[in-house]
Amino acid sequence: MPDIHRHPQSGFTDQLRAEASRLVSDLADALDDAIVGADERQALPADPDRALQRLAVPLPDQGVGARQALEALLDLQARAGTNTAGPRCYHFVIGGNTPAAHGADLVAAAFDVLTYTWVTSPVGVRLELQALEWLKELLGIPAGMHGVMVTGATMANFVGMAAARQWWGEQLGFDVSETGLSGQPQMPVISTRFLHAASRKVLALQGIGMANIQCVEDGADGLVDLDAFSRALEALDGQPALVVVNAGEVNAGRFDPVAEMMTRAREHNCWLHVDGAFGLFAALSPRTAHLVAGFEGADSITVDGHKWLNVPYDSGYAFVRDHGLMARAFRYSADYLPAENDPRPTLGAIGPESSRRGRGFAVWATLKAYGRDGHRRIIEHCLDLAAHFAGVVDAHPALERMAEVPLNIVAFRYNPGGFDDAGLDDLNRQLGEAVIEDGQFLVGTSKLGERTIFRPAFSNWRTRFEDVEALANRVVELGQQLEQRL
Ligand SMILES: Cc1ncc(COP(=O)(O)O)c(C=O)c1O
User: Which of 99, 132, 440, 481 is deepest in the core (most CB within 10 A)?
Assistant: First the structure.
């Protein structure tokens, strides 16, 4: 007689249980090193590809067990990991992690939190909703707007634009999520040159098409020409349209004239979406709040957490004025799922993800731990870093600042003299590659108008004044070395 209490796989599940009981003690020192060591680890490892080559092996028949697998992972991260939590990563817009947020994310992972609906995690769902309420208070987003957490600003734009597209269809008398777009006209989209690539991607995904975006031309000051914007609105002739206002662009931290665009667009039949991925945090400081004044009139708003809120990846937030549009755009139900009209919250039915992780843990914890004042201090610390770095650039004879610094991004280039603009573009492009190769800093180049620039974005509480001074010195050193090789 087989022993019915002894399942054939018991030996293996016993092994997993034993591993699970040791997991935290096995990892404690390594995690401590990872978190504390973020201040000192190099931004980029030397030759990560060499260490990564060992990944390409066939699937093992017999695994090595958790301890060895995790040791291999830690070793790989030590040899090939980018120190994105550290103080010297200024590429893209990379935020840090507050200790409370980092810890809360580890807690959420420990409990394998599933925030699809109220019953899968009453804690995770309520924490998310409460954290979204606090974010509204923090940023001055109208209390009546409805939020949902997503992976980042791309997906927050996706939520806002999906709600916009649903609204637009309803204006024309059809239900986009029910019947699709076939045979329908295209939804007009008006924005400015500051429109982020993520918004373009979203409009492509939603069947609107990138080529269908009308970006109004620049005026003399490089900002949108408001008269041209008004003309584009008039040309709609009453048709419903989506207007995207960009509160914070990535090359120099500039802003569309938010209030003016909102006022003008409101006179037309437009859905107003504000992409404030990092720029909306300007609202926290009296020094920068004017940049986003008027954004509260939006129909939908994008905010990113893994940038300037300093919570771990991935974490972004969409806010939409009309909850019904979110529910209709993302409707999701089946016999085994909560009913569409269930009054209890199902977050998987108002956003793109169905199963979803406990992002609210980190957001709630950081706002609980540091409050409005702590987060204002992080923002102002980064504003101070940017202002200080701009001063260092201005004072250095071989560096040239390329734009005003309204927020946390400093556009500059290496300019030792003796090169024309085209030569400087080439030099700075090559220097950008040399800086990455060097690995002390993660900072990227972009274009401001025709010119190639560096555009460090300071968004991490860990960054110190000496870090940004060292960046200026290293760019100059590497620039001089590059010149000698030319
Ligand atoms: C204004 C803006 N929108 C959208 C995005 C995309 O954000 P994510 O990478 O979090 O999806 C970014 C990223 O830098 C951004 O700056």
Answer: 132
Whether the Cβ atoms of residue 309 and residue 315 lie closer than 8 Å to each other: yes
pLDDT tens digits along 339-349: 999 999 999 99
Ligand 1 center to 168 CA (angstroms): 24
- For atom 10 of ligand 1, the residue with the nearest CA is 152
Same domain for 280 and 405: no
Structure tokens at 139: 């940023």
Task: Find the CATH number of the domain harbouring 408.
Answer: 3.90.1150.170
Tell me, yes or no, whether 29 lies in a domain.
no
Domain end residue (candidates: 315, 335, 370):
370
How much is the mean pLDDT over the chain?
97
Question: Which of 154, 245, 280 has the most ligand 1 atoms within 8 A of CB, as the residue to mutate?
Answer: 154
Reported pTM: 0.97
**β 451-454/316-320 pair status:** unpaired
Could you give the dihedral angle defined by the CA atoms of residues 420, 421, 423 and 429, in that order, rounded to the nearest 10 degrees? 160
Q: Which long-range contacts (CB under 8 A, 24 or more apart) does 37-41 make?
A: 38/83, 38/85, 38/86, 38/87, 38/462, 39/86, 39/87, 39/462, 41/83, 41/86
Domain holding 397, by residue range, is: 371-485
What is the domain count for the chain? 2
Q: Is residue 96 part of a domain?
A: no
Residue 128's CATH number: 3.40.640.10
pLDDT digits over 59-107, tens only?
999 999 999 999 999 999 999 999 999 999 999 999 999 999 999 999 9
Peptide bond preceding 47: is omega within 30 degrees of 0, i.e. cis?
no
Q: Which DSSP helix (H) or strand (E) runs through 202?
A: helix 197-205
Residue where a domain stops, chosen among 347, 370, 393: 370
